[in-house]
Each structure stands twice: as structure tokens, then as C-alpha cells.
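dumping this here so i dont lose it
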């Protein structure tokens, strides 16, 4: 046998082993999801979760007292008197985690895994619920966009029941699982509209049909949704969407929604109003996007800039620090030193958490570099431990920094890094914030990087943020989100009519200023 043939045979054996292991892993996982776990084992998981939170979370009692949280964890154990599946246990424990009021802190909902064959089958079919856009108000769920005119369901239609179970039951059930940072009042509806069917599918699985009872303009109607096969054109379009052109890279194309994460345009013919929309601070190609965008704005001599971070759940600190360098006319420090619980906390990020054999080998080789980098980045000051990150150092404004008037659009979907940068902009009086209270806290959040813990008996994952990140501001101590300078509410009718009342307010304000200058 030749050397080449031996190598090929070795790769074939390894590949076959990985497939068999993967299939076995899915089967074992799904069997575990249906297994009832004895009460004493579930109580062990409750204790394990709380002990890990106390060990690692740097701001556990910010929004809830220790006595209250102790009581809640003790109380939940007293309610566990029978065996439960992991999913049933999740619906008991997650509301207690949610009461901590740290928006990044949440158990991962346990759900059935699907095989590669099942994934391939789903990829050949259209989504069922994902082809609509939703709006949550109180205990009501509305369809606000019907992308493919499915069954000619009109925007503004309320879904009353799904397979004859009231939607209000699900909303009340799922609301208990979601918390914002602190005592914010706007975040939950935004996050719930995006996660509603994630929770639903985790409970029900991937079904091929569903019966919807609806009401529109006082008239009730029933629809039968099905998971349709994709046409040849749909499959061709999917393939086309996956191609990464230069434009797609810079604007961070999202194939799922066929949209761009970042957008830039001028809103008027004379280029006086520049508009930047960022849906997520993903950091992918962001430096090039901002570099090219602000060069165009400077070249056009635009006196007004609108930055839209509505429905932006956050992301990279590096990206918002870079963006701030284009918004600040003078040197700045974006965030205060970031606190961790201990010297070794940054080493608890589960470096070897997931990966195939090749990745484990690579991680084993690079672990010493990771170890020393994390250790050298941690320091002690005044009895507390901190972790060095670039945004806590003084940064210079970019040479193409914008010097005109800035408006920033915010809403309850502006979370995490979006709240950090808007809080800083407001504190520095660098912009006018328009919209509604952000979903993330004004005074900081706990995230950065995570330690991924797995509860020993239920096998539910609990990611714990290790970094206490706060904007470099004078704190408000309101325990709420960033409040707008100008409050402008967006209604469901505005959305249906494609009327952007918040952006319209800014444009009208700019027009007033222009008219005043002309006079």
C-alpha cells in the first residue's frame, strides 16, 4: 500500500469515526432530554448553579439583595417534589435566574438536537413561522410583515391561538424567562418578539404544519400553515446569498434575512444628512466600513449625522470604541476598568469547551499563549481585580471624525454595547438621543466573555458573564436604561404603514434648523 493510500485510508477512518460519534452524540442528547431526573438531583443542580454564580459573576447582587436571592434559590428547591425532564426543570429555574435582572445571564433552553440529515431536509424547505415579522404588545402577538404573502395574511393581524392553544398562555409563560439589565421597562417586548418561536420550537419541536386562529379588523379567520418545499429558484437564491462579495463583507451581509448589518446613505440630494444604521456590532469588516463611510461624509461636508442603533442587541467593544473615535472631537476613554471576580476568572472561559479532534490538538498547542495572555491581562487594584481591554485606555479621535451635529436613534431593542456607546454619547453631550429607553442599562452590564457551565444532572448550559463593563461616565444610579433626550414612541400602526416616526422627528428638526439659518 502506497503512502498516499495509507493517508487517504486514515482520513476515511477518522471521518467515519467523527460521523458515527456525532450521530451517537445526537441520539444520547435527545434521550437525555426525555429522561425524568429525580428531585434530589435537580436540587443539586440548583445549588450548583447558585454556587457558580457566586463564584464567577462580578455583580450578582446589583439589582437584587443577597437575602432575597438566597430566599428565591431556597424556595425553588422546595417546589421540586417530583422528577422532571430538563425542559420542565428549565421552566422552573430560569425565572429565578431572570430575577437577577442581568440581561446577559440566562440558562440555555434545552431542546432536541437534529441530525445532519434532518438539517439538510429543513434547508430544502421554507420556514414556517420565520417568514413573518412580529410585534408584541402586552399578552398579544401581531404579524406586522408577511414576507411572502403567505395565505394573504395582512399586517396587523393578531394571532389568537396556535394549534388551539391561546398565544397569551405562551407569552405569559415566556415573559418570565426574559429580563433586561435592571428595572428597564422597554426591552422585554423587543426580545420576546424575536425569541417567541425559538421557545415555541424548543417545546414543540420542528413541526410541518400549524393551525393559526387570527383576528383582523374584528373578523376572525383560521389559517393552516405548512412547511413548503423550496423551489429551484429559492435554492438558487440561497446559493447566491452565501457568496461573500466585497460589498457583502464590508456591510456584513446576513443571508437569513437577506439584509445588511451595516448601512450608510445620505438622506437628501445635497448630502447634508448622513445616515448610518448598525443592526449589530459584529466587528466583521467594521473598520473598513467606518473608514470608508466617514471619509465620504467628510468629503461631502455633511453638517448632520444620524446613527441608528435601534434593535441592535450589542456585540463588540472594539467596534464601538472604533465608532466612537469618529464621533468624538477630542481624546476620550470609552469605558472604565472592567472588573472580574478573581485573578483566575479569565481562565474559566472553557477554552476546550467544544471542538473536533483537530481543533482540540490546535487548542492544546496554543493553550500556553492563551494562559499567559489572560494572566497578564488581569491585575489587582484597591483590593479588586480588573481585566485589561483596549477601550479602557485613552483613544484619539480619528482624522476623519465627524464634527457636526449628531442624532442617535434608540429603542428597547438597543442593548449591551448599544447602551454603552449611547450612554457615553449622552454623558459627553455629543449627541441628541431620540426614541425610547434602551433595553440595556445606562450604567453598565456584565458580559465581555463567558464561563460556560453545565448543570451536572440536567445538563443545561449556564453561560456566566465574567466582565463588569461600565461606560466612562458620571453614573445615574437609576438602575434603568439610557433615557432619550427626546421621547418618540413607535406604534404598531407606524410599523404597518412603514412610517418611521422617530427618524421623521429628526428630519423635521433638521429642516427647522436649516430654515432658521436661511432666515
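and the seq i came up w/
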Amino acid at each position: 500500500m502506497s503512502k498516499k493510500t495509507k493517508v487517504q485510508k486514515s482520513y476515511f477512518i477518522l471521518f467515519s469515526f467523527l460521523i458515527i460519534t456525532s450521530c451517537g452524540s445526537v441520539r444520547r442528547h435527545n434521550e437525555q432530554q426525555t429522561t425524568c431526573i429525580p428531585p434530589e438531583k435537580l436540587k443539586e443542580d440548583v445549588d450548583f448553579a447558585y454556587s457558580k454564580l457566586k463564584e464567577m459573576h462580578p455583580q450578582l447582587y446589583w439589582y437584587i439583595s443577597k437575602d432575597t436571592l438566597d430566599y428565591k434559590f431556597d424556595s425553588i428547591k422546595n417546589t421540586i417534589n417530583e422528577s422532571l425532564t430538563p425542559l420542565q426543570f428549565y421552566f422552573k429555574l430560569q425565572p429565578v435566574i431572570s430575577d437577577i435582572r442581568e440581561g446577559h445571564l440566562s440558562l440555555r433552553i434545552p431542546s432536541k438536537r437534529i441530525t445532519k440529515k434532518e438539517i439538510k431536509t429543513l434547508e430544502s424547505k421554507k420556514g414556517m413561522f420565520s417568514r413573518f415579522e412580529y410585534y408584541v404588545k402586552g399578552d398579544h402577538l401581531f404579524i406586522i410583515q408577511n414576507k411572502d404573502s403567505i395565505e394573504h395574511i395582512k399586517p396587523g393581524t393578531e394571532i389568537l391561538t396556535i394549534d388551539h392553544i391561546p398565544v397569551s398562555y405562551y407569552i405569559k409563560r415566556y415573559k418570565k424567562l426574559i429580563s433586561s439589565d435592571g428595572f428597564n421597562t422597554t426591552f422585554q417586548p423587543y426580545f420576546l418578539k424575536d425569541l417567541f418561536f425559538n421557545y415555541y420550537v424548543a417545546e414543540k419541536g420542528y413541526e410541518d404544519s400549524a393551525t393559526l386562529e387570527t383576528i383582523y379588523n374584528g373578523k376572525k379567520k383560521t389559517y393552516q400553515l405548512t412547511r413548503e418545499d423550496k423551489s429551484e429558484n429559492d435554492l438558487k437564491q440561497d446559493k447566491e446569498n452565501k457568496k461573500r462579495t466585497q460589498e457583502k463583507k464590508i456591510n456584513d451581509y446576513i443571508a437569513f434575512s437577506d439584509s445588511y448589518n451595516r448601512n450608510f446613505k445620505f438622506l437628501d440630494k445635497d448630502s447634508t444628512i448622513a445616515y448610518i444604521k448598525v443592526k449589530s456590532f459584529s466587528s466583521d469588516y467594521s473598520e473598513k466600513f467606518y473608514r470608508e463611510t466617514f471619509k465620504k461624509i467628510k468629503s461631502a461636508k455633511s453638517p448632520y449625522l444620524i446613527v441608528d442603533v435601534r434593535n441592535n442587541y450589542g456585540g463588540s467593544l472594539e467596534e464601538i470604541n472604533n465608532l466612537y473615535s469618529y464621533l468624538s472631537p477630542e481624546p476620550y476613554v470609552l469605558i472604565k476598568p472592567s472588573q472580574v471576580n478573581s485573578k483566575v476568572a479569565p481562565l474559566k472561559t472553557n477554552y476546550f469547551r467544544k471542538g473536533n479532534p483537530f481543533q482540540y490538538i490546535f487548542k492544546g498547542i496554543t493553550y500556553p499563549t492563551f494562559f499567559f495572555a489572560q494572566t497578564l491581562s488581569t491585575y489587582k487594584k484597591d483590593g479588586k481585580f480588573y481585566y485589561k481591554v483596549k477601550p479602557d485606555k485613552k483613544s484619539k479621535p480619528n482624522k476623519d471624525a465627524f464634527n457636526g451635529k449628531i442624532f442617535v436613534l434608540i429603542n428597547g431593542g438597543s442593548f449591551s454595547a448599544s447602551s454603552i456607546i449611547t450612554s457615553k454619547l449622552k454623558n459627553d453631550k455629543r449627541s441628541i438621543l431620540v426614541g425610547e429607553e434602551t433595553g440595556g442599562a445606562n450604567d453598565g452590564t456584565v458580559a465581555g466573555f463567558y464561563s460556560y457551565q453545565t448543570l451536572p444532572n440536567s445538563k443545561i448550559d449556564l453561560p456566566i458573564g465574567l466582565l463588569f463593563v461600565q461606560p466612562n461616565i458620571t453614573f445615574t444610579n437609576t438602575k434603568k436604561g439610557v433615557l432619550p433626550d427626546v421621547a418618540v414612541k413607535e406604534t404598531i400602526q407606524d410599523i404597518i404603514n412603514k412610517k418611521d416616526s422617530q427618524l421623521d422627528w429628526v428630519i423635521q428638526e433638521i429642516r427647522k434648523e436649516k430654515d432658521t439659518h436661511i432666515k
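The longest strand covers residues 445-454.
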